[in-house]
Amino acid sequence: MPKDLKVVLLLDYYGGLLPDKQRRLVEYYYCDDLSLAEISETEDITRQGARDAIVRAVKKLNGFEETVGFAKKCDKVKRVFENYESDSSDENLKLLKEAIDDM
Questions:
Q1: Which fold has domain 6-68?
Q2: Per-block average pLDDT, block size 10, for the chain (103 residues)?
């Protein structure tokens, strides 16, 4: 199972919406870089059970992002703000206000 660092970001935004055990397993795997074997030993579950729970949790996180889009909106505000910092034109200010309003 390849590790997608986007999951860490989604976990920051939506982790509180996951059941505690799923959130914990995702944190172990993506944040603490534990192997499935280490997670299964820590949580007293099978390796396959750990993997299945992580896969389900990641699908939920992606579903939350598809529905809400908060991470994408925050990224857009960040990019527009960086443009505004380098060029404080009225047009960039307008774009920044629009990005913030869109949140």
A1: Arc Repressor Mutant, subunit A (1.10.10)
A2: 83 96 97 96 97 98 94 86 82 77 74
